[in-house]
Amino acid sequence: MKILKLIVASAVIAAAGVASAQWTFTTSPNRINDGDWHLNVNVSGANLTITGIATAGTNGSLDLSAPVDGGNYTITAIGNSAFRNATFTDVILPANLASIGEHAFRDCTSLVNVTPFLPATVTLIGQRAFQDCTALEGALVLSNPNLKIIEMSTFHFTKITSVDLAGSAVHTLGESAFNGTKVTHVTLPKTLETMNNNVFRDCTSLTNVVPFMPPAVKTIRDRVFNNCPNLKIPLVLNNKNGDNITITQAAFNTMGITGIDFGEGVSSLTTSDLFANCLGVTQVVFRAGVPAFVSNSNTFGNWAVMQAVVLIPRGCEEWETFVANGGTYANQVQTSLTSGEITAFQANFPGAKLPDMKIHMPNNQGRHQALKWYKPAGPPETLLIIK
Known about the structure:
Blueprint: H1 2-15, E1 24-26, E2 31-33, E3 38-44, E4 47-55, E5 61-63, E6 74-78, E7 90-92, E8 99-100, E9 113-115, E10 124-125, E11 139-141, E12 149-150, E13 162-164, E14 172-173, E15 185-187, E16 194-195, E17 208-210, E18 219-220, E19 235-237, E20 246-247, E21 259-262, E22 268-269, E23 283-286, E24 292-293, E25 308-311, E26 319-323, E27 333-334, H2 339-348, E28 358-360, E29 370-372, E30 382-386
Parallel strand pairs: 4-6, 5-7, 6-8, 7-9, 8-10, 11-13, 12-14, 13-15, 14-16, 15-17, 16-18, 18-20, 19-21, 21-23, 22-24, 23-25
Antiparallel strand pairs: 1-2, 2-3, 3-4, 25-29, 26-30, 27-28, 28-29
């Protein structure tokens, strides 16, 4: 009787289309199936690349981590467009997955979960691999030190909530890689050098980027952080490798940043709308001289609550807040900036309406100086000086 019940139960499971616990490999043509999904594969020794769907399964979950042919084969790659437009909701990726091809999961609008997301073995993700997976959620972790590039539009218009690239060696983020996602927190790698157009554009839920920015960054293209109004942290631009930092049009337009600290590598700010509409900025610090400006380019346009511009001589690494009524200052003197430099400042900080700049010399500390530019309403409660 027990044997009969077991046979009946097995028949019911098979009839319901529930996948088996492993994949079966067949030839002519090369395919694998789990009793529900039938997938086309290319074979290289014991390694398999999934190239497409032969027959879509009825089960909404696809488990690619199950053994293939009793462990004789390993799925190491998912080819270009292999699952494009597929209707599954959940995918479990194989533990030894090395690469995900271009458009591999693009337009899988029912896909909600990918586990793990992504395997630590992944070293290559093709452009638009998950683009328009509009229901895809989760925390993305890319931790392989051999992963160098996040390609164009890889996660464009997904609902992923965080990105952690700290364990990778990514040096380039492709155009629109995370554009329009729901990310709230991003951890960038110290190796990052280039951020192409629109990488985090319209990430309106983004509240934190660590570090902001990495010390090797030297190229920030158009609208990288455009319309990230909830990113309310200070921006630090300071290349530690001696490279010039190139920043192009509207890279930080309409952001919530609270201050900007320009360090080494920022020699020119000559593109339009670069920091326009960053209404939360209260302070700008220049640590390596005054960058070249283009007058009337709206570089710093439409600022409303600006309090100070501080010029710190190169080589002075430390600075502190000094309460005005708690210390004494030597006489204020006019700056040695040229009239052209002053005009450039005035043209590029229209929202602040700042008057003449002054150099403040702390008593007995004449070799140090900090430049402060006050609003007409008078100095704020604190003055910035150099130790």
